[in-house]
Amino acid sequence: MTVSEPAVAVAHPNIALVKYWGKRDEDLVLPFADSLSMTLDVFPTTTAVRLDPAAGADHVVMDGAVARGEVLHRTVRFLELVRERAGRRERAVVDTRNTVPVGAGLASSASGFAALALAAAHAYGLPGDSRALSRLARRGSGSAARSVFGGFVVWQAGTPDAPDPDQDSYAEPVTDARLDAALVAVVLESGPKPVSSREAMRHTVATAAPYRDWLADCRAALVRMREALRGGDMTTVGEIAEHNALGMHAAMEAARPAVRYRTAASDAVLGHVRALREEGVGAWATMDAGPNVKVLCAGADAGRIADRMRAVTGAPVVVARSGPGAGLRAED
Ligand code: DP6
Fold first, then answer.
1. 74 vs 80: CA distance, rounded Å
2. Domain 7-177 belongs to what architecture?
3. 196 φ, ψ to 5°?
4. Residue 195: pLDDT band by 50, 70, 90 thresholds?
5. Residue range(s) of every CATH 3.30.230.10 domain in the chain
6. N or C: which end of the chain has fewer CB within 10 A?
7. What's the 71 CA to ligand 1 centre distance in angstroms?
8. What angle do CA 253, 154, 136 make, to 5 degrees?
């Protein structure tokens, strides 16, 4: 038998406006609280999966280099799950191309596992709708559950006493949002991060006293955020997002020892965002597990905010708008 035709999937990163930080179940990747994000139209990941019945092990290539260590381990574990569900045994050849800088808080694991979930499910003939795909992507990386869908997306945490806890935690699109928002990403660093988000969130949950308050705040923030999206209220969306992100970073920094992704350069950008607001420009900051700052604003303001950020930081700046959900692609 020969190697099968590849299944090729494309997925985009997403940036959370109400963050996911902390798991109530590590193995099933179940979060403590719901989160809400916007899928972007930049930095897609393209993943091809083909089955090789003659191979004794999975072969994973990422951006042209053979994957090893943690990346390989997480990919193989994910493929094992797909094989188990599909009742198949063939090993896979996986070829992934990221256009997002890996590990810099620009969510490469979200686009990565959303694309891998779709390509692998297709290659192994695993049936299921997009909700099933979101649940599957979640097992690879929590935030990947959201990249299955485009636009604004909410990831339901699910309930701890559900009969099958794996089943009721998935993402779905926010269909009643009426807001044209953009994210202006100021790329301060694009190298790998010093501590993985997986490890950092585990450590925050275990050792940071303010984490519980932040989590309670997330639950309320999500309700208000959905209302603000419905009402097209950019200011409220921006305020909630900035408060939520800075609260998450404050909780991490209260961990023992502290987890610190913010750098002096990030703080300087946060200052520039505040200065913009003082001038009456609607701009709010959000940050993930890395030093880069993303400026949330109305779509119509993105161009001039990007120009300002370029001028004051000298750093590369990327304007991202609302992007599509994960999709299959015919191979070139
Ligand atoms: C700060 O989804 O990368 O970006 O589930 O352990 O793979 P794992 O974590 P991951 O964490 C993302 C954290 C965040 C916030 C968010 O995207 O909601």
1. 10
2. 2-Layer Sandwich (3.30)
3. -70, 155
4. confident
5. 7-177
6. C
7. 15
8. 95
Mean pLDDT of 261-273: 96
Q: Tokens for 138, please give them.
A: 């979640």
Convert the pLDDT of each residue in 76-121 to its tens digit.
Answer: 999 999 999 999 999 999 999 988 665 545 657 899 999 999 999 9
ipTM exceeds 0.95: yes
Q: Is the CB of 19 under 6 A from ligand 1?
A: yes
What's the CA-to-centroid distance between 197 and ligand 1, angstroms?
6
Domain 181-320 classified CATH 3.40.50.800? Answer: no
Considering the chain, tell me which residue range(s) the CATH 3.30.70.890 domain(s) occupy. Answer: 181-320
User: Ligand 1 centre and the CA of 201: distance in Å?
Assistant: 8
CA-nearest of 23, 214, 193 to 108 is 193
Q: How far is the CA of 5 from the centre of ligand 1 (A)?
A: 32
Ligand 1: atom nearest CA of 113 is 7
Which of 100, 43, 108 has the alpha carbon at shortest distance from 71?
108
Q: How far apart are CA 181 and CA 107, in angstroms?
A: 18
Q: Please say whether the beta carbons of 229 and 173 come within 8 A.
A: no
Dihedrals φ, ψ of 263, to 5°?
Answer: -115, 175
